[in-house]
Amino acid sequence: MPNVRGASDVLEELKDRFGAPSTGNPGGPMGLVQKTGDGLPTQWVSRNRVRDVLRYLKLEAERPYRMLYDLTAIDERTRAYRDDQPASQFTVIYHLLSFERNADIRLKVALVEPDLAMPTITDIWPAANWYEREIWDMFGIVFDGHPHLRRILLPPWWQGHALRKDHPARATEMEPFHLSEGKEEAEQETLRFHPEEWGMRRVHDGTDFMFLNLGPNHPAVHGVFRIVLQLDGEEIIDAVPEIGFHHRGAEKMGERQSWHTYIPYTDRVDYLGGVMNNLPYVLAVEKLAGIEVPDRVKVMRVMMAEFFRVASHLVFYGTFAQDLGALSPVFFMFTDRERVFDVVEAICGGRMHPSWYRIGGVAQDLPQGWDRLVRDFLDYMPSRLDEYDKIALGNRILKARTRGVGSYSADEAIEWGVTGPNLRACGFEWDFRKTRPYSGYDQFEFDIPTGQHGDCYDRCAVRAEEIRQSLRIIEQCLENMPAGAHKADHPLTTPPLRKQTLHDIETLIDHFLGVSWGPVIPPGEAFVGIEATKGNNGYYLVSDGNTMAYRVRIRTPSFPHLQMIPLISRGLMISDLIAILGSIDFVMADVDR
Amino acid sequence: MSESARIWANLILILAAVFAFSALLSWIERRLLGVWQDRYGPNRVGPFGILQIVADSIKLLTKEDWVPPFADKAVFVLAPTIVAVTALLAFAVVPIAPDIGVVDLNIGLLFFLAMSSLGVYSVVLGGWASNNKYSLLGGFRAAAQMLSYEVFMGLALMGVVMLAGSFNLRDIVAAQENLWFCVPQILGLATFTVAGIAEARRLPFDLPESENELVAGFHTEYSSMKFGLFFIGEYVGITLISAMIVTLFFGGWLGPLLPPLVWFLLKTFIVIACFVLLRAALPRPRYDQLMAYGWKVMLPLTLVNLLITGAVVLSAA
């Protein structure tokens, strides 16, 4: 584990710089060092010093932590197991990533009611803007100095803060819903855009700006995404993205579903990613439970995940071309995606959302004849990809529309939390499958395609090449599928292997408990991030020794990607914005969760 | 048969044929796109789905005919009629076969250019009267696009006029007895085709509509038969441009063995199929790229063509 190697170093550095950890948190600057299930160095910091520590880690430290990878909070008020942690009712968590060290650090700040306020860090990381709004929205923690502290996922008229433990999780726990005409009108009125609230002018230098409401229902926004444009003619002066229309409370549901029954919910977070979404979740649960899965499981998981990477990238490729006005490619690519789904269906039973991974394994063993299906697909696909390079990427109009449009540098990308193909398009070679191999990716041979300019064209070219690399990985899976069980022999494997169930009482009890209550995962915290279809998708799970998670935090790649749209679209035209939206490759379910 | 009866028969039959063909064209286009995109296209209503257009027409006619309360009502209603009327009027001068055609104008070509230019007003007015921001942007784009492409559309045809020595379309067809103008006027053909696609607002020149960007552009607010008129206008427009390309560059009705009418229809259909193929094959350029292409590439090409043709005609004389 690379994280563990870097762990002590950075904590030593912080100790040298800010003084030794003290138990009297939140009084002293540095608090306890917490042990977590993932081995990530976790440092408690006082609220007064957190900005200094963050600034040090980002700007002054040797081999700095340049990316604000995640920023979230926990309502700790009903948590039972907090032995090695200071008293806290709400904890704000900063998760930073250092590329130079290939290591992460987690900083925690304790807050006690009624003083739920934090200093903003939007001046250190602009990417913190949306994360801090989300924490305000979900937990009611105020960020002093934040430029636009308002709700982001829930509508402005919402009462309460949804991820607090005392907020109801189900409609049955709430008053019967009634929508009067007056309330409906008032709610609709809150959708009206007021440029002044965002510091925009309606008139400047004798020019009347037009404010164009693009979305939430618009052909090019890939779901329900709203972006309000300030236009001078067709030129974009500024843009305000608005999200939350696809919010389903996936994190809140995690606190109500058993560890096992939550798996299907993960499928729907990035709904083009299928089982790719299961992977970080089950890996994190397995880390908490201490389950080591057999090699066969690892390879099966890798193979299906790569099939879904192919499927997701094909959708991207087709819709990107379609956004640029090309009618035909999307039909070819959806046809190919059907072929992927035929294989997925034969192996998993489902198509888009197979929910196939299990805690400690996968749902079933591979069916007979799976190898022939996979081989057929591998024979079929490469020539199609070559053809797509000609009809889509090679087209001169498409090149003219996308080269140099919506570009950002690798530094900007890191500043804004961009990961995955969008980061690699800037020429920065960073892929979790190589840098932090999980599920046995270190055993595979494949290349990491990168671009150069970080523009729309490169983002598409990188993904087109990634499809080929995924095919390489699938081929290696096909040729080297290990023998063995499709589940780990561990009491918390859910549901466990049944071969001894009828012979000894122990496994029968495990099976009964796992199926009727759900497995009880030992208390602890673990984060696992993987290279998903659209960037780094990660699950930060907090277990309180129960059948359900205490907190499920889903770090999705599309959330920060959307946040930087205004930055890269200023000064361009509406058509360019459409190209940018297509090239980012997001789905709103992945943004809003 | 008296002379006036012949004219009336011609007129009514051509009108009916143009309407029928344009309606059929939507089915042809969807089937052709289906073939090129590995799918079926409409194939359920009637044999080969050919009655799809009947179903579509019934649907369009029975939809709510909605005029937005914020629209400029008079102009909003007027706009879709302009496009259909001008396209149909322009058809009057098309020489379909030696004795088929509505009128034989000695300035037929100019009449066609005038009518197709008037058609632009439909889009611009429709976009403006809708009082919707997307429509307005579509209208802007239409105005800018037409302005740039009108300029060389007329100029592109002057080479043909010089060679034929006439603005009369029948004379122009007759002048191609020995050699179709697509050979000496290859540049004129290329530039006129591009301008024609722009005139018909078809991909890759469908910027006023561009559904991925502007929802439906200038006709976002239109429904029912008002939308239907835009639709008909577009298909009559394609048929018209294809018929003009055939008339001006591919010898109109001329051809061996088969009767002239068949030749004309066959050639027109092939040109239309090329239009559909273009739509299946190309993405859409950006608005400023389109303008730059018009002014910096197409216009100079047209002027070069004019100079060369002029020099050749002069030296031959």
Account of the 3D structure:
Chain A: Residues 208-593 are annotated as: NADH dehydrogenase I subunit D. Chain A: It catalyses: a quinone + NADH + 5 H(+)(in) = a quinol + NAD(+) + 4 H(+)(out). Chain A: It is an enzyme of class 7 (translocase). Chain A: InterPro entries: NADH_DH_suC, NADH_DH_suCD, NADH_Q_OxRdtase_suD, NADH_quin_OxRdtase_su_C/D-like, NADH_UbQ_OxRdtase_30kDa_su, NADH_UbQ_OxRdtase_49kDa_CS, NADH_UbQ_OxRdtase_CS, NDH1_su_D/H. Chain A: One of its GO terms (cellular component) is NADH dehydrogenase complex. The complex is a heterodimer of chains A (593) and B (317). In chain A, the strands form 6 sheets. A 5-stranded mixed β-sheet of chain A has the order 1-2-5-4-3. In chain A, strands 10-11-12 form a 3-stranded antiparallel β-sheet. Chain A is an alpha+beta fold. In chain A, α8 packs antiparallel against α19. Helix content of chain A is 38%, strand content 16%. Chain A contains 20 helices and 17 strands. The longest helix of chain A is centred in the middle third of the chain and has 29 residues, at 295-323. Chain A folds into 2 domains: 4-144, NADH:ubiquinone oxidoreductase Nqo5 subunit (Beta Polymerase, domain 2, 2-Layer Sandwich), CATH 3.30.460; 250-583, Cytochrome-c3 Hydrogenase, chain B. Chain B has 317 residues and is an all-alpha fold. Chain B has one domain. Chain B contains 11 helices and no strands. Chain B has helices spanning 3-36, 52-62, 73-91, 108-129, 133-164, 169-174, 186-200, 211-214, 224-249, 260-281, 287-316. In chain B, α2 packs across α9 and α7 runs antiparallel to α11. The longest helix of chain B is centred in the N-terminal third of the chain and has 34 residues, at 3-36. The chains are: A alpha+beta (593), B mainly alpha (317).
